[in-house]
Design brief:
Largest sheet: 5 strands, antiparallel
CATH superfamily of the largest domain: 5' to 3' exonuclease, C-terminal subdomain
Number of strands: 5
Number of helices: 9
Helix content: 40-55%
Strand order of the largest sheet: 3-2-1-4-5
Distance between the termini: 41 Å
CATH architecture of the largest domain: Orthogonal Bundle
Order of helices and strands: EEEHEEHHHHHHHH
CATH topology of the largest domain: DNA polymerase, domain 1
Number of domains: 3
Radius of gyration: 16 Å
Oligomer: single chain
Shape: globular
């Protein structure tokens, strides 16, 4: 099992990034909560990781914090939750925000996560209620500017499971000038999560 990687951030384009570790490029998928914390390309970086082995692929997921990885792993144990929905949850809210949703039985916030319907949200609340650690907080910092932020933000939102019409509406309501890809995605997700 690959537990963590330390190397140079070769490139990042949500939801994927590549970490160069001693000349070997590891391609990882990561939630937006991790992308908000990434340094600029060419910087040294350590990520904790989770490896999923399938018949057709080995998929590596990266996280800036152990709290994120722990929540990701807990979500995978919930019936009907795969890696895509787990990433969407972490991209839509902080670890502590998710825990608050479960504690408050806040179905409304959970069903705004792409891929999470009412039944899945109810299952998350029931099955995650006894897995909540105390006192976990997870902040997010602004990302660094990237090329073509609007189109990169669009690609990332589509990859997170939003429909094209939703992405157009989410980004169309934002003032995009001067914002980084991560800032655009964060603002679009914030608006979607707050119900506009």
């Amino acid at each position: 099992m690959i537990g963590s990687l330390t190397g140079t951030l070769a490139w990042k384009q949500p939801p994927r990034l590549m970490l160069d570790v001693g000349g070997v490029g590891y391609e990882l998928e990561a939630p937006m909560s991790t992308f908000y914390e990434l340094p600029r390309a060419g910087s040294k970086l350590t990520l904790v990781t989770h490896l999923v082995v399938r018949e057709d692929a080995h998929l590596l997921y990266g996280f800036v914090s152990e709290a994120e990885r722990a929540l990701f792993r807990s979500l995978l144990k919930v019936s009907g939750i795969g890696a895509r929905i787990a990433l969407a949850v972490l991209s839509s809210m902080t670890v502590s925000g998710f825990h608050d949703c479960v504690r408050r039985k806040d179905l409304g916030s959970l069903v705004r996560v792409p891929g999470v319907g009412r039944k899945t949200a109810e299952r998350l609340i029931v099955e995650m209620a006894d897995r909540l650690p105390d006192g976990i907080a997870n902040g997010a910092a602004a990302g660094t500017p990237a090329g073509r932020p609007a189109s990169e933000a669009e690609s990332a939102l589509l990859a997170l499971g939003y429909r094209p019409a939703e992405v157009t509406r989410m980004l169309g309501s934002l003032e995009t000038a001067g914002l980084s890809t991560e800032a655009l995605i964060r603002e679009a997700l914030r608006q979607a999560h707050s119900g506009h």
